[in-house]
């Protein structure tokens, strides 16, 4: 495993003897009682805004309103299916070594360490034997499912929903049977897709965890993620080599994408079609993940996912979809050709204006089935419940989305502008820029720049500007009737 992991201290203080349980229950402290009262109210169907940490309350909303998890569940269900493969199992090998090492260190403190895949399936369990036996009563064991969707708020499942380390203590768990547990988990994310591929979690029964545990988890994950970064750079080399070989023969626009649908390379025709500048690093190839560009082509992400699934590691496969590349213009066919290495799809070549292979068939669910009753935001130690009409616009800062509202600047609980857009489109929101989503009902004025740029003024009092990209301007004018 690359890098070094510091020693792990689980207990807030050392104690001796065979009894690992410290005095006092996790549910009897004043703060725990306050959370327990909030849990009772929330589980009964009421809305709660204070008394619970924002990340926990956001998880409760997912468990109650989206996943409909039974709060009386006392054991995790079994998990079926295959374990997700990442980098020929190098990541899980590194995690297994890390879990076994940490398990030896936490055994003396009555704790256990678990490793899951990106779907919340437990792959391994290490640590104190007596705690392992108690955990088995809740089916905290290999091949059980601890995703939020299956088992509610918990360290493993909730860490797969958010970035960074997360702790879940006592009655913060959605299922009452787990209220005597304290746990801390963190997800390992693919640097290309930003999707979780695994998690590591530490659990302790009827005793708190040290405040240093989340820091240890963060450092441990950084060591493992170096392997994912190394793989991303290796895959980019393969994709660029295939792009260079094919673009020489291509007469039209061609771009190369990684597994996440981010553009790694594009020829001059594609750069012009997409409205990019000639100095973009995509012309020579973006080896570094941070240099890659996410195209703002509606439906392209779904097509890339479909193509990866249909190709199944076969380089000879091809498929096409018809998408609107520039809004206000006619749709054009895009042919997808996989880049394969060791029978795994590591990227895609996208050829514009060509219709070749299998036609794309959308399998996405109707948007009406997932309309939010409210938009959940986070500010300081509170969860903020917003109606869509309160939001003027949303701005993306990488994967974090900020909502501009009458109550100020609030971070969206949902990560990724594409996810926020999917939820808000039915309420009159439209993408006007790769970083901005606006509420068309809240546009106050339009202003032209010196070079003909278009800006939306969302609040005439503060002269709040939102830029409009050239490719979105024609469609926006049509929708606003100007």
Automatic annotation (TrEMBL):
HTH LytTR-type domain mapped to chain residues: 380-482
Protein name as catalogued: Transcriptional activator of acetoin/glycerol metabolism
Gene3D superfamilies per the UniProt record, alphabetical: 3.30.450.40, LytTr DNA-binding domain
Record Pfam families: LytTR
InterPro entries according to UniProt: GAF-like_dom_sf, LytR-like, LytTR_DNA-bd_dom
Upper taxonomic lineage: Bacteria, Bacillati, Actinomycetota, Actinomycetes, Pseudonocardiales
Region (Disordered) location: 1-21
SMART domains, per the entry: LytTR
């Amino acid at each position: 495993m690359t890098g070094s992991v510091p020693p792990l201290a689980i207990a807030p203080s050392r104690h001796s003897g065979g009894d690992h349980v410290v005095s006092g229950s996790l549910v009897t402290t004043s703060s725990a009682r306050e959370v327990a009262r909030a849990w009772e109210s929330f589980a009964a169907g009421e809305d709660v805004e204070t008394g619970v940490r924002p990340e926990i309350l956001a998880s409760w909303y997912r468990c109650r309103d989206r996943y409909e998890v039974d709060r009386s569940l006392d054991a995790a269900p079994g998990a079926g299916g295959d374990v997700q493969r990442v980098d020929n199992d190098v990541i899980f090998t590194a995690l297994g070594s890390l879990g076994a090492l940490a398990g030896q260190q936490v055994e003396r403190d009555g704790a256990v360490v678990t490793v899951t895949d990106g779907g919340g399936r437990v792959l391994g369990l290490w640590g104190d034997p007596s705690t392992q036996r108690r955990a088995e009563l809740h089916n905290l064991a290999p091949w059980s499912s601890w995703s939020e969707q299956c088992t509610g708020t918990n360290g493993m499942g909730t860490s797969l929903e958010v970035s960074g380390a997360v702790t879940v203590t006592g009655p913060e768990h959605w299922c009452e049977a787990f209220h005597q547990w304290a746990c801390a988990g963190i997800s390992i994310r693919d640097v290309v897709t930003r999707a979780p591929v695994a998690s590591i979690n530490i659990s302790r029964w009827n005793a708190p965890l040290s405040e240093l545990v989340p820091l240890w988890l963060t450092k441990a994950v950084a060591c493992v993620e170096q392997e994912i970064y190394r793989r991303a750079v290796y895959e980019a080399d393969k994709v660029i080599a295939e792009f260079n070989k094919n673009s020489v023969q291509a007469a039209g626009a061609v771009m190369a994408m990684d597994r996440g649908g981010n553009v790694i390379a594009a020829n001059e025709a594609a750069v012009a079609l997409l409205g990019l500048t000639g100095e973009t690093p995509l012309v020579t190839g973006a080896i570094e993940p941070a240099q890659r560009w996410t195209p703002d082509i509606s439906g392209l992400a779904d097509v890339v996912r479909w193509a990866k699934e249909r190709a199944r590691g076969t380089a000879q496969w091809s498929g096409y979809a018809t998408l609107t590349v520039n809004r206000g213009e006619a749709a054009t066919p895009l042919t997808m050709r996989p880049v394969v290495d060791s029978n795994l799809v590591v990227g895609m070549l996208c050829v514009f204006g060509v219709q070749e292979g299998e036609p794309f068939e959308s399998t996405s669910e109707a948007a009406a089935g997932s309309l939010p009753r409210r938009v959940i935001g986070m500010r300081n130690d509170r969860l903020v419940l917003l109606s869509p009409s309160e939001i003027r616009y949303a701005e993306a800062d990488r994967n974090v989305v900020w909502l501009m509202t009458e109550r100020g600047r609030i971070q969206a609980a949902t990560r990724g502008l594409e996810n926020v857009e999917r939820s808000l489109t039915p309420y009159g929101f439209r993408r006007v820029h790769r970083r901005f989503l606006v509420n068309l009902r809240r546009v106050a004025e339009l202003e032209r720049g010196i070079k003909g740029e278009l800006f939306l003024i969302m609040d005439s009092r503060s002269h709040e500007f939102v830029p409009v990209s050239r490719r979105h301007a024609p469609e926006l004018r049509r929708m606003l009737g100007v």
